[in-house]
Each structure stands twice: as C-alpha cells, then as structure tokens.
Design goal:
Elements (H helix, E strand, L loop, with lengths): L1 H27 L25 H9 L3 E5 L3 H6 L1 E2 L3 E2 L5 H8 L8 E5 L7 H11 L5 E4 L2 H7 L4 E2 L7
Parallel strand pairs: 1-3, 1-4, 4-5
Antiparallel strand pairs: 2-6
C-alpha cells in the first residue's frame, strides 16, 4: 500500500509539473494558443428596423465590435455623448459620411442613437447608412437617456476633427 501511495504522489507531482511547464511555455511563446476563449456573444435584434437592446449594445461596445453614431445635434453631442461615439447628423449625412469614412467599415456594427423615446433621428440615420451599403446597422432607441441613466462610459466635448 505504501508503494502505491508513493507512486500515486509521484504521478500527480509529474502531472502538475508538466502542466505548469506547458502553460508557461505556451504563455511565453509568440503565437501561443489561447487557454481560455470568450464565447462569441449573439446580438439580438428586436425588429425589422434593427432596434437593439441596451445590453446587446453594451456587449458589442465592450468587446470593441461596435461604433456608436450620435444622431443628435452638435450642441447635444458636445454636452455629453457615449464614449468614443461620432457625431453623425442624418441631416448632414453626406458631410459626416465623407468626414468619417476612414473610420467606417461596411461590415462593422454601427449603432445609431439619439435621445427620447420619440426621437426618430437615429432611425433616419440608420436608414441612410443601410442605403449607403452598411449592413450591420442598429438603432438604440432612447439611447442617450438609457446609456446615461445606467452610468455607462460617457464623455463631453466637441467632435473629433478627423
């Protein structure tokens, strides 16, 4: 019995040591394999207009897989907007599209928002973006109020000049 326990202890020790060495080498090796992978999140779109829920918009935002577009006025944008959002007025669509084209990708997730349950600027912007060939366009209804009330990341200041 004593030999069995001794052999078992040695086997466990060798196994733990081997795993530690393997993880260390993998971590130090350029192009090492990921040990843990985040499960790809599925975004739920609630209707044909591409409305997205706040929780889904947040998932895309936190994973760096979305760009927010603020459809409100420049004044409203300057007083507060979702962090890293671009001001993108549907009434000045051609100008904004030309200005921000280098930052837009036809395949990326674009989330348009404005403020107030009755605000239609984000829907108008989303329609124009889809017509311009952008496929993954979502509308976060009452976006600014929802985002701000949840205490999610915001910032103030004028539009980027890029």
């Amino acid at each position: 019995m004593h030999r069995f326990r001794s052999a078992l202890r040695q086997a466990v020790f060798i196994l733990v040591l081997s795993a530690a060495v393997a993880f260390t080498v993998n971590a130090l090796r350029p192009g090492g394999l990921p040990v843990l992978q985040a499960k790809e999140s599925v975004v739920q779109v609630s209707d044909a207009n591409g409305t997205i829920a706040l929780k889904d918009a947040l998932v895309l935002s936190m994973s760096g897989r979305a760009l927010f577009l603020d459809a409100r006025s420049d004044w409203e944008y300057g007083n507060g907007h979702i962090q890293n959002a671009l001001p993108f007025s549907p009434d000045e669509f051609d100008y904004a599209l030309e200005l921000y084209r280098p930052r837009l990708d036809k395949a990326q997730n674009l989330i348009a928002y404005c403020d107030g349950a009755l605000c239609e600027l984000s829907t108008k912007l989303a329609d124009k973006l889809r017509s311009a060939g952008y496929a993954n366009v979502y509308v976060l209804e009452n976006g600014w109020t929802l985002w701000n009330n949840e205490g999610l990341p915001t910032e103030q200041g004028p539009a980027p000049t890029e």
